[in-house]
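In response to reviewer comment 3 from the previous cycle, which asked for concrete evidence that the modeling workflow produces usable outputs, we include below a single protein chain processed end to end. The sequence was submitted unchanged, and the resulting structure tokens are shown without manual editing.
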Amino acid sequence: MKFKTSTLFVQWLIVCSVFSLLSCSKSSSPAPTPTGALSSANSINSFSFTKAANSIPVNGTGEISGTNITIFLPPGTDRTLLKASFTASDKATVTVNAASQTSGASVNDFTNPVVYEVKAEDGTKKDYTINLITDIASIDQVVNAFMNTYNVPALSLAITKNENLVYVKAYGKADVENNQIASSENLYRLASLSKQITSIAIMKLLDLGKIHLEDKVFGSGGILGTDYGTQPYGPNITNITVNELLHHTAGGWPNDGTDPMFINQSMTAGQLISWTLDNRPLTNTPGTAYAYSNFGYCILGRVIEKITGTSYVDAVRSLILQPVGITDMDISGNTLADRAANEVKYYGQGGENPYIYNIARMDAHGGWLASAKDLARILVHVDGFPAKQDILSPAAIAAMTTPSNANVNYACGWAVNNVNNWWHQGSLPGTATEQARTISQGQYNFVILTNTRSLDASFTTDLDNLFWQALSNTTRWPTYDLF
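The workflow returned the following structure tokens.
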């Protein structure tokens, strides 16, 4: 019996030893690398194109997903001579087509995807494919289709996301006859996007305590007093307020065949206001009816001049443009001979003459010239989003974007809706434009400027849909800021 018990005890010890070894082999801790073993690490840990190493306006940071690296740089970037900055595993070597790579120094052509081979100390290799994106195809396809459909010679686009300017691009030709390729620096007539500039200027004066929205405009005690027209004024003229002009509820002067802004082309703005007050009586009591009025915003331009004691243009420069860093916006000339430096040429359709009107007189409602980038710069400083400081107070922004009872979809120079998007389109012979601040699918602003307009009934709808189609097709955006 003692012999059998001893045998069982030995067997039990053997089983315990085996179990212990099995338990150790299942441990989550890796076995230590033997002293002197070669490293097998072969990863790229970061990848970028920097301004310091390249002639580019922003730093582009790569997004690493497995062995694919996606990186954005702006449209127009020369892809052929770029120097990548990267970090790789310790003791690993990096090559492209067998050529050794030095971070921030080695030059490669990124016109097509480039493969970076990372070789570990122990000889194991891993290939990383670098995809450089400058032109976002999902946006360009929509824009090009729109331009082809409506025979648009040139179009300029600017998009901000979370107040970063993430895409700026020019398409087509600024001057077809002279084969002038469009540039993102080109200036376009804004048409009615000028109304938002005038509204912002009024709101800035509101913040400064120099104006109140319920201030009367004409007559004794009014901002403009009796500077214009013949007294006594017609019915209700002296009841018009700044607020009603902003909301297009002043009671008359609609944008139709009787619009004062498209007649008496030789008159100055002041002469036209006097003529209109004397000859075009109001059709509604101020504040009771909505009628989109270019002439109402012409009056607001004179209100700004009266309060500031300067020209409308100088007032806007002081109140808006200088604070946000814009230097090249101006009022358009009337003729092709007046074409400003960097301004596009305009093309009529359906027999329209794009140089028929007195655009300079339209200053406060339709006369501004700007690039898409500069308009986007204004938007991010009045949009109420948190990333960049606004030039208007929250109270002024709220006032600017609050509609009237007469039209719940129009505020002070902005179309609005119940999801808190703000936008506006502009249209003149040879010009079609749109800008918007939207929060319904994220914090975006966009600006679209063209040098023609189509008389096709679907044109304005398709212009408005252009950004939304591009947004729905775009899943990845740059993270840099081109401002």
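Residues 1-30 have pLDDT under 50 and may be disordered. We consider this sufficient to address the reviewer's concern, and the full set will be provided in the supplementary archive.
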